[in-house]
Amino acid sequence: MSTTTPEIVMYSSAWCPYCRAARALLDRKGVSYTVLDVDAEPALWSELEERTGRDTVPQIFIGTQHVGGYDDMAALDRAGGLDPLLFPKSTP
Question: Could you give the domains of the chain?
Answer without folding.
Answer: 8-86 (3.40.30.10)
